[in-house]
Amino acid sequence: MINIIIEKGNHHTVQQIGYSREIKNNKMGKNLSIVTISLQLLLASTSAGQVFDVKSYGGQPNADITQALTKAWKAACAVAGCKVVISAGTYKLGAVSLLGPCKGAIEFQLQGTLQAPSNVGKDFWVSFKRIDSLIVSGGGAFDGKGQTAWQKNNCAKNYNCKTLPINIRFDFITNSIVRDIQSKDSKFFHINVFGCNNLQIQHVTITAPGDSPNTDGIHIGHSSKITITNAKIGTGDDCVSIGDGAQDVTVNQVTCGPGHGISVGSLGRYQNEEPVSGIRIIGGTLSNTKNGVRIKTWPSSPPGTASDMHFENIIMNNVANPILIDQGYCPNNQCSNKSPSKVKISNVSFKNIRGTSSTKEAMKLICSKSVPCQQVAVAGIDLVYKGAGGSATSTCVNVKPTVSGKQNPPACTSKQ
Ligand SMILES: *[C@@H]1O[C@H](CO)[C@@H](O)[C@H](O)[C@H]1NC(C)=O
User: Fold this and answer.
1) How does pLDDT run across 59-114, given as a tens digit for each residue?
2) Ligand 1 atom at minimal distance to the Cα of residue 277
3) What is the CA 113 to chain-centroid distance, rounded?
4) Residue 316 burial (C-beta neighbours within 10 Å; 0-12, 13-18, 19+)
5) Residues 90, 92, 98, CA angle at the centre, nearest 5°?
6) Tens digit of pLDDT for each residue in 147-179?
7) Distance from the CA of 197 to the center of ligand 1, in angstroms?
8) Would you please indicate which residues are annotated as catalytic (active-site) residues?
9) Taking a C-beta distance cutoff of 8 angstroms, is the pair 104, 80 a contact?
10) Whose CA is nearest to atom 11 of ligand 1?
11) CA of 314 to the centre of ligand 1 (A)
12) Which ligand 1 atom is nearest residue 308's CA?
C-alpha cells in the first residue's frame, strides 16, 4: 500500500491528493490515514525545497534569459518533484526546447512576461517535449510579438508556405496540466498539442488581433484525453481547432471571439490522416466570430473518418455561420474541386445552440456526395438573424438529420 502511495505521489500532485482521499474514505482505519498524511508531508517538504529560480542562473528582468532558463530546466529535470520559477518581470527569450523525460514530476511556473524576438529562427518559440507529469502555471504571459511577423505570412497565397513559429508547443506530454497562463500575439498558432495523452488545459487566456493570420488559439492533433476548460480566446483564426488523430477531446466553457470559431478540421488535406473521434464541445459563448461550431473537410481528399462529435449548450452572439458542416472547405481556392471529400462524417449532434446569427444561413450542413453524413442529430436550435432580408434559413446537402425540440430556423429549409 505504502509503496503505491509513494509512486502515485511522485507522479502527480493531483493524483496524490485524490489517492489520499480514496484511502481515507475506505474502511482501512485511522492508522493508514496517518501514514498517508505523513508520507505526503514528506513529499511536500522534499519538493518545496526544490525551486530552480532562473535568477539563480543569471536570468534577470529586462535581459535575455534563454541561457538561464535552459540551465535551470536541465538542473530541475534531473531531480524529481521540483519547480522552475520565472518570477514577476519582463524577460526576453529566444527559442527554447524544454525537454524530458525528467526524473519525476516537474512544474514550470511563469509569473512574469516572456517576450519573443522578432526572428525566432525555428518553427516554435517555446517547446515542451517528452515530459510526464508536467504542470505549467503561474499566471504569466508568453508574448510572441507577432506584429512584425504577420506581414511575412503568405499562407493565403502559397499552399506550401513556410509556417511562422508557434508560441508554445506541447509534444508527447502525458498526465499533465497547463493552467493559468496567457499567450499573446503569437506569430502563428498560439498553443499546439501533438502526441499528448491525458493533458488538461485550464483557464488559459489567448489574445491576438482579429485580423492576425493563422493565429489559432489551441490546435490539437494526434492526441487523446485532452480537456480544455474555461479558456478565454480571441484571435485572428480558429479559437480551438481539432485536427486528425484527435480522440477523446472535451472543450468545456470556452469564450471565443474575435476569431473563426471552434472547429474540427480541416481534415482531408494530407495523405494518411488518422481518424478523429470522441469530440465534445460543451457550453461556452462565441461572439462576433466568422463561424460558430464547424466541421470542415477538403474536397478531393483521401479517405478518412470523423465520428462521435457533439456540440452542446452553446451561446452565439452575432456569429456568422453558427452551425456549419463544410465538406467543400477550400480556403483561398487552394484546392482541387474535382471530386468530393472522402472524409466520412458520422454520429454528430448539435444540441441546445441559441443566440444570434450575423448571416442569414444560420445552419448549413453541407456533406459530401461520395460519403453522405450519417447519424446527424439537431435538437433545440434557436438562432435569430437580425439583419435585413428575412429570417434565418438552414441548408442540408447529402445529410438527413434527426430533428427534435425547437427549430429556429426550421431544419433544412433548403436541401439537396
Ligand atoms: C456516438 O457518440 C457517442 C459519444 O462519443 C458514443 O457514446 C456513442 O456510442 C456513439 N454512437 C454510435 C452509434 O457510434
Assistant:
1) 999 999 999 999 999 999 999 999 999 999 999 999 999 999 999 999 999 999 99
2) 5
3) 21
4) buried
5) 110
6) 999 999 999 888 888 899 999 999 999 999 999
7) 21
8) 237, 260
9) yes
10) 347
11) 20
12) 2
